[in-house]
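note to self: dont lose this again. the chain is below, predicted strucutre after it. 81 aa total, dont forget to put it in the shared folder this time
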Amino acid sequence: MGTLSILPWIAHPVYWALVFAGWTTGEFGPARVLIFIALWFAGLIVIPRLLPAGFLLFPSYIAILDVALVLMVFKGDVRLR
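---
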């Protein structure tokens, strides 16, 4: 497994932190927060039912949602320098 096994442990807290940050900064209203919560539950329930090993794709799905949240909360990409 190695390094890849830690990625879900990073993606999930970052996801919830970004949803919380969007809500507390006023960037997201209650409706948008509920949409992202619904997307999380939809991925949790639907992905494993579509594919035999779909539970392995759930962290990747969360990572894609993380990218969308970063772009929405920070209004663009985050500068690393």
